[in-house]
Each structure stands twice: as structure tokens, then as C-alpha cells.
Amino acid sequence: MQTYKNKMQQASQLIGQQGTTWAGMNPEYVARMQLQNRFNTGLDIAKYTAKIMREDMASYDQDQANYTQSLGCWHGFIGQQKMISIKKHFGTTRSRYLYLSGWMVAAMRSEFGPLPDQSMHEKTSVPALIEELYTFLKQADAREMQHLFKELDEARQAGDQVREQAAQESIDQFETHVVPIIADIDAGFGNEEATYLLAKKMIEAGACCIQIENQVSDAKQCGHQDGKVTVPHEDFLAKINAVRYAFLELGVEDGVIVARTDSLGAGLTQKIPVSQSAGDLAEQYSAFIDGEEVTSLDQMQSGDMLLKQGGTCIKPTRLANGLVRFKPDTGADRVVLDCITSLQHGADLLWIETEKPHIGQIANLVNRIREVVPNAKLVYNNSPSFNWTLNFRQQVFDAWQEAGKDVNEYDRDRLMSKEYDATTLAIEADERIRNFQRDAAAQAGIFHHLITLPTYHTAALSTDNLAKDYFGDQGMLGYVKEVQRKEIREGLACVKHQDMSGSNIGDDHKEYFSGDNALKASGKDNTMNQFAAV
Asked: Would you say domain 42-273+328-460 falls under CATH 2.60.40.10?
């Protein structure tokens, strides 16, 4: 990366070449504005973040302790505050991403209003949110750089060369808030051409990683709801190809594709593929179709289908709507076939949607996949749809019971109750939850852990608490004690909301443009000065 001094020198040369017409340009201000905006286009971001993600994937292959994480964000401000917080607490954003959840786009960003996760929202809202997230992350860069420039100016004015040098080094070593986004394209919003067109928009907005699922696009359901319908492998692979072509067309050669399978919880298919040769993917897919064995045509009625499975003919089990049912208890086998097939045809990472957070279950599936593709690794949904407390308490209960430990003091069906919170079982369950991501990365091949819609829930919870206190007996103390005082004492940058919204950046720009004529907002009467010591 170019240093601050190099940037100034280049700007000075450029301005000097223009003679007197650019005499109003200050080379240092030019350098500052360039450093505050390190990415000129979404494609610049996609290429930069794709490289980071590939490096992280390689690092995980070397040591499974090097897993990555993200949280789902439904607004640019939420994503920005998340990354500012990560830098504050951990000093670096490395291995921390953002997740763009189709569920939250549907529920919170559609012009139709709140919608279920069924691909009914406008497809354009997905790239729009990607662009918004990166706009806010870039603004976080600009704000932090503005603070560093102010520190540099104050050091110069004080004649403190040590402090000046330290500020300049901080500028040169600045780490951007821009991180990879794993972006949910649902089932592709239509046919493979529609998937390609939307993928292009998402990549142009900055997405380096696109997650696509093997459900039927026009019958898509949330991964944790019933009624899921999958497509044959050929249909899904065509959409993986479409996404890859979009990456390559736009020059994002390191673009990452996450192939998600919903087969574990999907019991239906919309169509039966045509087999071209013995043992091909279509035949393997059709082998899972449920049906009644047919030994005589007298068993057939008008409109019935006849399917040959190996040496047997069956009448497929169909619902009233024409959907075809899979054989029971074949979900795991279909998942394994889905994952191997996707990795062998262009996908980079897998997503297996499960019904519970159980490391043993995930590991069993991944180990079977790795028999064919040794470096297979997952993106895993640490979903709020799981009752984590109950699930893990029941896992501990079952483990204890299997080991012969006395569990008579516990009622397995009531383990969510507060009365168990201080028990040994609950404490062990919480410890398993705390270590879930680390243990699953090591034992079940999970490269990336995400929570799809956490900020949906945190927004609801914090708003509920504020409403309860502010409109109740606490009045204004409900806000001061539970919000502002905590912001101040915990060092949240957002307590200076004027600064966070870009007021000080704007003041600097006014000075660049207007010199001493600039009308600034940050004078002595700005009430934000009350937080000067924060």
C-alpha cells in the first residue's frame, strides 16, 4: 500500500502539471480524500474481499482453528457498527465477515412490507443492500481516517514529532472496515439466466461470495420451514455455472460460490429428471423417489406415472399438486450426493441446512463427503430458529443417560425452564454452546460460522427494553441509564452520533473546498462537545 507521503507527492506532481489552474488544490487534502475512499467501485471491493476469503479458506485447510465468522445485517448502519465494534475489541477485522440474509431482506427490506422467506421480495433489493452495506463500511473508513488526520494536525501544531510520526504510521497501517460479504441469492430468483443477471448485479455491488440453494425457485421456503422442494442436480449445477460465469465476466476470478443443500429437510421434488446413461446424476436422483411397486399395468390409473428404478417399476407417490415425494429417511444420503456433486462441478463451499445444531450429525455428513472430496468445508447457519438452550440441555441429558449417569432430577421435556439454569446440566450445556463454533470447526469441517438474523432479534429486544422503561416508571432514566451511560462507559463511537453520521468529515471537506470561508458545524456550540472526553 502507498504511504501517506507517497500519496501527497503524487498529488503534488499532478497538480503542478496543471499550472495555475489547479492552484487551489492542496496535495495533502487530495491524499487524505483518496485514503478515505480506498475502493472506487463495487468490483474493486469484490476483487479485494475475494482474495481475503481465498486466503482464509487456505488458512483453514492448514489449521481448522482458523475458522471465520459473520453476523447477518439488515441495514448498512448495522453492518458498519458491527465492524467498528470488532476493530475496537479485537484490533482487526480479519476472519470476520458480514452475512446478507435473504430472510432479513424479505422481512425488512421489501417495498411490499414484511414478507416470509419465500423469494417474494424484489430481487433488486439484494444488490441494493450489498451496496448500502459497503457504503456504510467505506464511511466508517473515512470517519476513522478523519480522526487520524486530526491527530496528525494536532501533533504538528504542538510541535510533537514523536506523536506526529505515530499518527502517520497509524495512517499508513490503517486497516479498512471493508470485509467479505457472503450474500444470499436464495434459489436464484428464476431460471439460470435470471440467476446470472442477479449475480452480476450482486458482484458489481461488491459481493465476492454468493450462496445459492437447491430449492425450486418459485416454491422456495425458509430452510427451517416445512414444504421444501428440491430440484434435480442438473438444474442446480446450471445455476452454479451461471454464478461462475458472472464472476468471470466481471473479472472476479477468486469469486466464491457456496452451494447450499436443503435436502435434509426437503421431502419433495417438482420434477423427475431424464437419465441419459446408466448411473448418471438423473438416475441417482430418481433412485430416491418414493412409490408403489408395479407388477401389473392393472395397478395403473389414468394420469399415473411409471418409473423404472433399477430392475423395479414403481408408481411415484404424488401429492394433489403434482409434487413427487422422496423415500423416507433418505435426506442424509441426498445431502451427501448433493454436496459431492456441487463440489465436483464448480462450487467452493457447502452449506447443509440442518434441523438442529448437533456436531455429531454434521460431522457424520461431512466425513462421508470428505471420502470423495477431502478438502470439503462448510458454511454453517448457527440459526436463531434453533432453540439452542433446549437443544444443548437435551444433548447433555442424553449423553449422561447413555453413560449411565443419574438424570432423575431432570425432566427432559422441561429443560428450558429457569429452574434448571443453575444446575450442573445447564452449566455444561452452556459450555458446549460457548465452544460450539470452535468444536464444530475442528470436528465437522465448518470453515465459516454465521448467524443469519441476529440483528433482527437484537433490534427487537433492545427496543422492547427501552419502550418498557421509557414509557414506564423509569422515564428518561430508562434511556440514560440503559443506553447513553453504557455508550459512554463502554466506549461506543456512536454516542457522538453527529460525528458518526459524517459531520466532521463534512467540515473537513468544506475547509478543503472553501478555506477560511467554510461554515463548520463543529464549533464551540455543538452539543457533541459534551462527549469530548469519551
From this structure: no
